[in-house]
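agent> Task received from the user: take the single chain below, predict its 3D structure, and emit structure tokens. No templates, no multimer pairing.
agent> Plan: (1) validate residues, (2) run structure prediction, (3) serialize to tokens, (4) report one or two observations.
agent> Step 1 OK, no nonstandard residues flagged.
tool_call: predict_structure(input=
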Amino acid sequence: MFTTLLIANRGEIACRVAATARRLGIRTIAVYSDADAGAKHVVSCDAAVHIGGSAARESYLKSDTILQAALAQGAQAIHPGYGFLSENADFASACAKAGVCFVGPPPSAIAAMGSKSASKTLMEKAGVPLVPGYHGDNQDPEFLKQQADLIGYPVMIKATAGGGGKGMRVVAGAEVFAGALASCKRESASSFNDDRVLIERYVQQPRHIEIQVFCDSQGNGVYLFERDCSVQRRHQKVIEEAPAPGMTEERRRAMGDAAVAAARAVNYVGAGTVEFIVEPSGRFYFMEMNTRLQVEHPVTEMITGLDLVEWQLRVANGEALPLTQAQLVRNGHSIEARIYAENPDKNFLPSVGTLAYFALPPHTAFANAAIRVDGGVRMGDTISPFYDPMIAKLIVWGKDRDQARARMVQALAQTKVVGVHTNVAFLTRLMTDAAFAAGDLDTGLIERQRSTLLPPSAPARPEALALAVATLLWCEAPSPDSKDPWAQTDGWRANGAYRRELLWAEQEVVHRCVLQRQGAVQVLEIEGERYPFKQRKCETTVAGAFEFELTLGAALVLGTVVLRGERYEVFSSGKMSSLIRQNPLTQAVGEQVELAGGLAAPMPGKVIAVHVSPGDQVKRGQALLVMEAMKMEHTIAAPTDSVVKALLYAVGDQVSEGAALITLE
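)
tool_result: status=success, residues=665
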């Protein structure tokens, strides 16, 4: 086994690889950009090398710089993780020429599967079923539209070098094909430095099921069962689970055999994932092969008890696969949820900021546990616009799917993030959704269940307001050692009752609470309802959060409150409420500033296309400009019929969240 490994990646996968390498006695070297100098993966390794600027093209995509770092540090191998250079055949070739082991398949296999169009040609020859479509080299826009017309709408446009939902668009009709094609090509060029696309028939109500395969250099190949990745938003996976609900043994063998055949067709070595689109009838089609480890690999590890990174390292070292197909067994059910810095209420727009508070459920770092967390950030870290907005992965195991789902709900309730918007509440609703609970899955589930998964914001419950009041009282209380009777703030009166009104703003709603005390009895009136109120226990955490136990009426209330100035972030019963204390002595915080006649940037990013000019008349819903953030495109559309008065930014400009982009009249 090699003794020194450079990890050419960042975030949770770099931390994950470092943990396994450390267990095997391998010295690890991290690489980092300007934005990652203090990142978790840097301190997780034995050494670290700076490789450039914050943008991926200035650092993590600089293959020459990374290879030079490996050689300078005496690394015998490079683990590419996933994303960035993990599926770059030229980088794998450069490693081989330099005498450094690339922990992955041979360059020829990467090249063969790296192009979605070329790989489909290979799969067709290998007898693997394909979705009807055009996978050729002709990239003329008019020719591609003709192919789409022949296939029949709806069609899917896909970047041939793509992955992770980037460079993909569903096109409902011929009239919108040109715009979707241009957007796909821009996004693909930005993410993969390759703007080629293919066109396929869009399969209605499909499931997305993938097979984990492993091959060694001795000619052995196995499949480690399947993962269901059907629950997606914007063609990006949100929930993954293994095994796939409703999968029969017959279909599992058929898909597994097809996946191994796909790998053998390109003389594959190492870990790979063969992805299939599955129709409601059960018929499946080859979609693509990812020539690397996948983000969702932990669910496979949880049901097999295996360390797939260790398998990668051993196979890269020339060893045979540790087990044969007959020796592989699965146990129980596992679900993975991706915790993203994004705002589901704003069409899942990414959110950037500093993790002012970050708490995760009790967990272990690896397998053989009910709850596992794979993460690459810590409290105090910044979620930047340069990289994917994933904060962490929650992975749970249960003896069956219902138990795993219940454990995921528990784990999400204990996940508390302050500083950025997250999808935690959305994931909780998804876990308890009737269709998901029944295993009625397909890639359109989120859109189909949108009304229940993305309901209007509900006002804070009485428990959350009581926790905010308790926090305020705790912060106002004098030191326990104080003997000064004039310093006491408990509301005691020698004669008469104590009464205090407290106002809490939640977006555009203001909640009224009245705290009253008569003798030793405290009553909290919330929105006109009166509750006996008593604080039973309060503990402060290292991070400055308050852990409360109190009674409100007959109910015992447990919760966490993170205080940021006048803002109280309240976590209770798996829900989060953001409350702002309305102090009459200071200006109200959090008022929304209206940009009269203008459109504001929904997130920080870069303007990459402008479709209008001053004086243009535009219709409601018409695309005005396109922004890019975290490698994804977001179109800014006209809210109503109007005239463009002024463009405030040009193509290439960086803009901050909330900045006025266009003035309309």
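agent> Step 4: summary for the user.
Confidence is low (pLDDT under 50) at residues 587-597.
agent> Done.
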